[in-house]
Amino acid sequence: RSPLLIEQLTVHGHIDLALKLLTAEGYPSFSLMIKRGATALWEDWEGRNSHNHPMFGSVAGFFIKYLLGIRPMESAPGYSSLIINPYIPSDLNQASGYTTTPYGKIAVEWKKLDNSILFDISVPENMNASFETYGRHYPLVPGKQNIEIDMSKT
Question: Quick check: pTM over 0.85?
Answer without folding.
Answer: no
